[in-house]
Amino acid sequence: MKRNKIIAGNWKMNLSFVEATQLTQDILAQYQNYTNQHTKVMLFVPFVYAQKVAEICAEKPNIYVGVQNMHYEKAGAFTGEISPVMLNSIGVEAVIIGHSERRTLFHEDNELLAKKVKSALEHNLIPVFCVGETLQERETNQTQSVICMQIEKGLFHLSHEEMSKIIIAYEPVWAIGTGKNATPEQAQEVHAYIRNLIATRYSTNIAQNISILYGGSMKPDNSADLLKQPDIDGGLIGGASLKAKDFIEILQSVPQSNA
Ligand code: PGA
To answer: Is residue 182 lining ligand 1, measured as CB closer than 6 Å?
Structure first.
């Protein structure tokens, strides 16, 4: 088994243009000194910076530039929206779909997210599909049923070939931006559960090859323990991705032997 290890930064709605450019350059400079370059880096940046960041990262192996959302249509009367064709035209390679902030604050439902995932794949964008339960759902023992529903409705319309191209991020809502990460055991349990769902619907081979990232208050001081877990293949990092030093420290904590 040789799953991709991935450390992804989700910058959310942060940074000025100058700061975003500087952060990209700092990350690249430090990444180039880093020997374990099998670990892939993904930067999910605000739309308005994507072209510049993609230019800076062009032809750098194992660095991918993505955005945090997109519309599923190619073009049309959708005021304020960004299409996958537009993203293709400026060198964007990946997109986060179904982040809990999109689900909650912007009311994106499973049906809409299913269309976005399909459209991203049709336009050769790598979707990072996010799932996760709220605190109330965890406390009432609904974690597995919530995750199962999100995965089934968001992804199970995909063909085997399409499924083999996606990345999943497990992000418990109660851990995002709260400083309270899931324990390695809690995260591992859900990651294994997700992999098992995929094995049952698709195949063991597809399930074993899909990268499942953990997100939610991942920081340099907790990343090593999380990334040691057998089914945790990387991280989707919010707050700590805004400082090059923290982001690179997390990257360095990816276990070498599995990378
Ligand atoms: P956080 O965010 O690392 O700030 O908790 C993670 C995310 O929302 O992707």
So the answer is: no
Q: Rounded CA gap, 159 and 167, in Å?
A: 15
Residue ranges and CATH numbers for the domains of the chain are 5-252 (3.20.20.70)
Q: Which of 67, 217, 222, 226 to mutate to test the pocket of ligand 1 (most atoms within 8 A of CB)?
A: 217
* CA-175 nearest atom, ligand 1: 5
What string of pLDDT tens digits covers the 259 residues of the chain?
A: 579 999 999 999 999 999 999 999 999 999 887 766 679 999 999 999 999 999 999 999 899 999 999 999 999 999 999 999 999 999 999 999 999 999 999 999 999 999 999 999 999 999 999 999 999 999 999 999 999 999 999 999 999 999 999 999 999 999 999 998 899 999 999 999 999 999 999 999 999 999 999 999 999 999 999 999 999 999 999 999 999 999 999 999 999 764 4
Ligand 1 pocket member 68 (CB < 6 A): no
- Alpha-carbon distance 259 to 246, whole Å? 19
Residue reference for tokens 């997100």: 215
Strand partners, 42: 8, 64
Give the distance (Å) from ligand 1 centre to CA of residue 42: 14
For the whole model, what pTM was predicted?
Answer: 0.96
Confirm or reject: Cβ of 10 under 6 Å from ligand 1. Answer: yes
**Spatial separation of the C-alpha atoms in residues 222 and 241, rounded to whole Å:** 14
